[in-house]
Design brief:
The chain is an alpha+beta fold and 254 residues long. 54% of the residues lie in helices and 15% in strands. The protein has a single domain, classed as 2-Layer Sandwich (Heat Shock Protein 90), CATH 3.30.565.10. It has a five-stranded mixed beta sheet with strand order 1-2-3-5-4. Helix 4 links the parallel strand 1 and strand 2.
């Protein structure tokens, strides 16, 4: 009888431990989701403020253009229009997907890059309507890749610093690429850069970004490919559509 009770207690303890582990896992996932949600809300607020400011500026631009036209200053008017059009394109390209959180993230990163005198180019050729990965997880992937590109350009001696974000799709996959014209990533460390804690910097806090990217990709059956030479470094991630077979997972394409 005593052995029976002991066995029952052991079973109950094991069940309790499993339940606690599941609760902790869900709690950590909830915290991560909430942090990403807060960042997305902040980015959305900044995008909304920018759109409101742009709307307010449109009237001023029209008044200036009308004034130049009245004065028959056509060359000056054309020059002014080109500058205004270029600014409008920047915001327009950042709000092309059906994912508000992604649009807000791209707009926020564009503003951050411009403050660091980095040219930030966005090329969106997909609305991402049927993409299954959670928006906040995709935001974390893109945010980490873009932040790494900015860090790579911090000490870059080149005259022009550029980052290009491309969002595309094929009949089988969604494809995201983050490219920069910074220094080449040495062959010797390419197998290690996705490992937790690996960093070429000595400061605390580095070495987590690509590990987070790798973890999210593995969970969502995503691929990642790294190409780096003296001209450009490009991280390309992709996700299959529906039940398409995934050949590589996580960092398998390196």
């Amino acid at each position: 009888m005593g052995d029976k009770y002991l066995y029952l207690i052991v079973v109950l303890v094991v069940i309790l431990i499993v339940c606690i582990a599941v609760l902790i896992k869900n709690y950590m996932k909830l915290i991560a989701g909430n942090d990403a949600l807060r960042e997305s809300i902040k980015n959305l607020g900044e995008l909304n403020d920018k759109l409101r400011m742009d709307r307010h500026d449109y009237l001023n631009h029209l008044q200036i253009i009308y004034g130049l036209m009245e004065l028959e200053e056509y060359d000056e008017m054309n020059s002014y229009l080109r500058k205004v059009y270029k600014e409008l394109l920047k915001t327009g390209k950042a709000v092309k997907t059906s994912k508000p959180a992604i649009n807000a993230l791209l707009a926020a990163k564009m503003a951050e890059a411009e403050a660091k005198e980095i040219e930030f180019l966005i090329d969106v050729k997909s609305d991402l309507k049927k993409l299954e990965i959670e928006d906040w997880e995709l935001c974390k992937i893109l945010s980490n890749l873009i932040d790494n590109a900015m860090k790579a350009l911090e000490d870059f001696d080149g005259e022009e610093k550029k980052i290009r974000v491309q969002i595309n799709e094929t009949p089988e996959r969604y494809i995201f690429s983050v490219e920069d014209n910074g220094p080449k990533i040495p062959e010797s460390i390419r197998e290690s850069i996705f490992k937790k804690g690996f960093s070429t910097r000595k400061e605390d806090g580095h070495g987590m970004g690509l590990a987070i990217v790798s973890s999210i990709l593995s969970k969502n059956d995503g691929d990642i490919e790294l190409l780096s030479d003296d001209e450009e470094t490009a991280f390309t991630i992709s996700f299959g559509k529906e039940d398409e077979h995934i050949v590589h997972r996580g960092t398998g394409c390196l």
